[in-house]
Amino acid sequence: MASKKIIIDRSKCISCGSCVACGEGKIKFIAGKAWSNESDYTDDQAQDIIDVCPVDAIKSGDENEYKKSYEDQEVAKAEEDEEDC
Ligand code: SF4
User: What is the pTM of this model?
Assistant: First the structure.
């Protein structure tokens, strides 16, 4: 069942691109750091993405955890800043 969100700790991300490459378009760089959109992942899909990160910056969580991380890390602001460039 597809139910997990991918949550990335952007402070740990070293921008290696591995998760972007295997994220099927659901993960992209925003202001130089990776972030997943709100797509759902199965447990296996989420684990595959978690496993590619060399710095353990990726975890899975529910929608509330995803939204909290999005707000705490000010991803919306990073998106706006990137569009301004
Ligand atoms: S795999 Fe990890 S370090 Fe590499 S881009 Fe993704 S989150 Fe960043």
Answer: 0.93
